[in-house]
């Protein structure tokens, strides 16, 4: 049940669309960066343990 | 006489300052992050759905009033993120805690996204209401300068190889940029006052009707604050891991 946004539908929908898209991109980018950093650290720690 | 009285154990930072220890900080953030993520998601979903679907139009602003649920929380966080970075930078300058400098670094991209959301939603709201996407009004201008400071801050971190030098210089930049964060803060306060008055007046001063906009807005603000905290905690953890990886790699290179 979409509310009737009247003549301002474009403004309201683009505000919600762009904002949510930016938030989602930020979250996805943050998680990807985090996972990559975790993996890289694990590898280096494993190597440094193995090599003493 | 007990052992501790005879041989004083080395003094360790306690309470708040103990989180300057990266291991302790990571442990703490792993513990609180799941709850923080769920809570921020819940607040955002409830607040935005409530605001978008279940609030009436304002008779003067029509449906554009729904933009308030994104614009006000994001503008608030854009400014507060800079203040958080300011506090973290000051802690770095004064106490030299690396976690603090990394927390400031981690907050900048979140702050810049909040600033972008505030600028964009402001523009699409301004167009139908003021008849212009943008006005060189002092408040809007100081907000734009804050946005540029965010970009400069991130560029400076990226441009300097030595992490301590980068932390020092970005801290100074953060201090300078705070002028514009303060300017935007006061400006936004004035503007919000005008906006809130307008909305409540347009609804015949019935306070219970003004609450119709106010409560979902509060939930959205809580959602934006919580998602900011969650993202900054997570990103600070990432920065700590990257720093440790680099340190271990440097040690490997020194050995070989």
From TrEMBL, chain A:
Its main location: membrane. The keyword Hydrolase does not apply. This is Heme exporter protein D. It is found in: Cell inner membrane. The chain crosses the membrane at residues 12-31. It comes from the Bacteria. GO terms for cellular component: plasma membrane. One of its GO terms (biological process) is cytochrome complex assembly. InterPro entries: Haem_export_protD_CcmD (IPR007078). Keywords: Cell inner membrane, Cell membrane, Cytochrome c-type biogenesis, Membrane, Transmembrane, Transmembrane helix, Transport. Belongs to the CcmD/CycX/HelD family. Required for the export of heme to the periplasm for the biogenesis of c-type cytochromes. The keyword Cell inner membrane applies. It is a single-pass membrane protein. NCBIfam families: cytochro_ccmD (TIGR03141).
UniProtKB/TrEMBL annotation, chain B:
It is a multi-pass membrane protein. One of its GO terms (biological process) is cytochrome complex assembly. Its main location: membrane. Residues 31-196 form the Cytochrome c assembly protein domain. GO terms for molecular function: heme binding; heme transmembrane transporter activity. GO terms for cellular component: plasma membrane. The chain crosses the membrane at residues 32-54, 74-94, 106-128, 140-160, 172-192, 212-234. This is Heme exporter protein C. It comes from Roseobacter cerasinus. The lineage of its organism: Bacteria, Pseudomonadati, Pseudomonadota, Alphaproteobacteria, Rhodobacterales.
């Amino acid at each position: 049940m979409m509310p009737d946004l009247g003549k301002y539908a474009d403004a309201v929908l683009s505000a919600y669309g762009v904002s949510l898209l930016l938030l989602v991109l930020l979250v996805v980018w943050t998680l990807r960066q985090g996972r990559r950093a975790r993996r890289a650290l694990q590898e280096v720690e494993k190597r440094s343990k193995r090599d003493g | 006489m007990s052992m501790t009285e005879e041989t004083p154990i080395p003094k360790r930072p306690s309470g708040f300052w103990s989180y300057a220890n990266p291991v302790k900080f990571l442990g703490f953030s792993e513990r609180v992050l799941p709850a923080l993520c769920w809570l921020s998601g819940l607040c955002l979903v409830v607040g935005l759905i409530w605001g978008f679907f279940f609030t009436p139009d304002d008779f003067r602003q029509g449906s554009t009033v729904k933009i308030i649920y994104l614009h006000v929380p994001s503008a608030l966080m854009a400014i507060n993120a800079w203040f958080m970075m300011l506090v973290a930078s000051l802690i770095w300058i004064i106490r030299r805690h690396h976690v603090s400098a990394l927390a400031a670094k981690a907050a900048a991209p979140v702050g810049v996204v909040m600033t972008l959301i505030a600028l964009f939603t402001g523009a699409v709201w301004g167009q139908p209401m003021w008849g212009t996407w943008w006005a060189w009004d002092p408040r809007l201008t100081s907000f734009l300068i804050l946005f540029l400071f965010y970009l400069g801050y991130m560029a400076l971190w990226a441009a300097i190889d030595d992490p301590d030098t980068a932390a020092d210089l970005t801290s100074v930049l953060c201090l300078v940029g705070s002028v514009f964060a303060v300017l935007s803060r006061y400006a936004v306060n004035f503007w919000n006052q005008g906006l809130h008055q307008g909305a409540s007046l347009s609804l015949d001063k019935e306070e219970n009707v003004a609450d119709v906009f106010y409560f979902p807005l509060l939930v959205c603000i809580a959602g934006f604050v919580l998602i900011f905290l969650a993202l900054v905690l997570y990103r600070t953890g990432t920065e700590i891991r990257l720093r440790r990886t680099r340190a271990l790699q440097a040690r490997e290179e020194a050995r070989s």
